[in-house]
Design a protein that fits this description.
By secondary structure, this protein is of the alpha+beta class. It is 56% helix and 18% strand. It has four helices and seven strands; from the N terminus they run ββββααβββαα. It has helices at residues 49-58, 63-74, 124-260, 262-275; strands spanning 2-8, 18-24, 31-37, 42-48, 84-89, 97-106, 109-120. Strands 1-2-3-4-7-6-5 form a seven-stranded antiparallel beta sheet, sandwiched between helices.
């Protein structure tokens, strides 16, 4: 069971304060009990689900919408004095009951949401004690809710402090990023300038390389031509010198043969006289100036006749 206790002042007697307790189970649309007290006397009544349906039908309103209106007028803690009002009629029947009604006021129009007859309670002090107990429970619940809200508020304040510190860190980070970005832009511009300079220098070097290579090829070609001419000239001179030397050697060889022929002839005569008719043999030792590589110019030298 759920209970709700509230304070109200009826239209017919605004100087008197009443305490109204609403009790229901599960949902207000399934019915509820009302207990009303002025601190001295108490009245109680019950509204069934059928009566709720009948009231909704009389007002030509859907039951769900009607139940929402009941919650606003009976359960909400907000001050709806300008919108929802209560009234109590003390036209008692045998002094045992009163008429209790609740209305909704819309500018110039007022319509009744519901009404019922409340019966006087014989044991009023017990009912009042229950109302006080319910009030204390509500206070206790409100204290617990207040403590919870206080802790939640402290947590939120702590989070707020953390958020402020974080915000400061974010601002410092943004300032640092801005400063680093500016420095990075400066360094990047310097690098770009240096790269452009290097590219320009590289382009100039590439343009100079073909000219240098062409000049080097020209120098090498001219040098090779000169060396070739020098080589051919020296070869021709060496050939002429060799031819002249060979001719002179041959002339000297012929001259030597004529001069040295006297001595060997004497020896051959002596050698022939001693050995009779034996034909002498001529060897290369007798002509030291001859060699195997020297051509034989006169075949008569090799066959010497001593008789001649």
């Amino acid at each position: 069971m759920e209970k709700k206790l509230r304070q109200l002042c009826p239209i017919s007697d605004p100087d008197t304060t009443y305490f109204l307790q609403i009790t229901w189970s599960k949902d207000l649309g399934m019915g509820f009990d009302l207990t009303l007290s002025d601190g001295q006397s108490s009245w109680t009544g019950k509204v069934s689900e059928k009566e709720i349906s009948r009231e909704a039908a009389d007002m030509e309103m859907k039951q769900e919408k009607y139940v929402e209106e009941l919650k606003k007028v009976l359960l909400f803690d907000q001050d709806f004095s300008d919108t929802y009002r209560f009234d109590i009629s003390k036209e008692e029947i045998n002094g045992e009951s009163i008429h209790f009604s609740y209305e909704k006021n819309l500018k110039d129009i007022t319509f009744r949401l519901g009404s019922l007859i409340l019966q006087r309670v014989t044991n009023s002090p017990e009912v009042i004690r229950g109302l006080i107990t319910c009030c204390l429970d509500c206070v206790k619940e409100l204290h617990a809710k207040n403590d919870h809200l206080q802790k939640e508020n402290e947590r939120l304040l702590s989070n707020l402090d953390d958020m402020q510190e974080l915000q400061k860190c974010v601002e410092a980070k943004e300032e640092l990023e801005t400063d680093l970005y500016k420095r990075f832009v400066l360094v990047l511009n310097e690098k770009k300038t240096k790269i452009r300079s290097l590219q320009k220098h590289l382009k100039e070097v590439k343009e100079m390389v073909p000219e240098t290579a062409q000049a080097r090829d020209t120098v090498i070609a001219s040098k090779s031509t000169g060396e070739k001419e020098n080589y051919e000239g020296s070869t021709d001179e060496e050939s002429e010198n060799l031819i002249q030397l060979t001719t002179s050697e041959r002339d000297s060889l012929l001259g030597s043969l004529d001069i040295t022929d006297i001595v060997p002839s004497r020896k051959r005569r002596q050698w022939t006289s001693k050995n009779g008719n034996t034909k002498p043999k001529v060897t290369l030792q007798e002509f030291p100036f001859l060699s195997l590589s020297t051509p034989i110019l006169n075949a008569d030298i090799l066959s010497f006749n001593p008789a001649s």
